[in-house]
Write a structure and sequence with these properties.
Layout: E1 2-3, E2 8-9, H1 17-37, E3 41-54, E4 59-73, H2 93-98, E5 111-112, H3 118-122
Antiparallel strand pairs: 1-2, 3-4, 4-5
């Protein structure tokens, strides 16, 4: 959850049974994908809801559900490079402060991950006739 373009992450806290169910399903998806694509794969999800029948009460309630948005390969962390400042210019120090910084385009974090094929998931090729 969060904004993949800026790297902002949300926190979601709940102590109900349906919240535990949604969390376990999310963890299961992430564990399966990391086994197939490596440890640096992360899932981008959106908090949604699904109907769930409550047998004891005979009603249908809304439960939380993490909806899949995208898989991203974050890759290993880059090696720390020393920060380098631009060389100073003494031509017009007042003019340099008057200009606003250039706006940067928001780029998504990480690289897209290709979807898992049934052959990869089953670790077998099933010929269909």
């Amino acid at each position: 959850m969060g904004c993949p373009a800026c790297g902002f992450a949300d926190t979601w806290i709940n102590s109900g049974y349906f919240a535990m169910l949604a969390y376990e399903q999310l963890v299961d998806r992430i564990e399966r994908m990391t086994r197939l694509r490596g440890n640096w794969v992360a899932e981008i999800v959106k908090l949604g809801r699904r109907p769930e029948k409550v047998k004891k009460l005979g009603i249908t309630k809304q439960r939380p559900h993490f909806e899949h948005v995208d898989w991203r390969d974050l890759g290993p962390p880059p090696s720390p490079a020393p920060a380098q400042l631009p060389s100073p210019t003494d031509k017009d120090p007042a003019g340099a402060a008057a200009q606003p910084p250039a706006e940067k385009k928001k780029t998504p974090v990480g690289k897209p991950v290709k979807p898992v094929t049934p052959r990869e998931e089953m670790d077998d090729e099933l010929p269909f006739s």
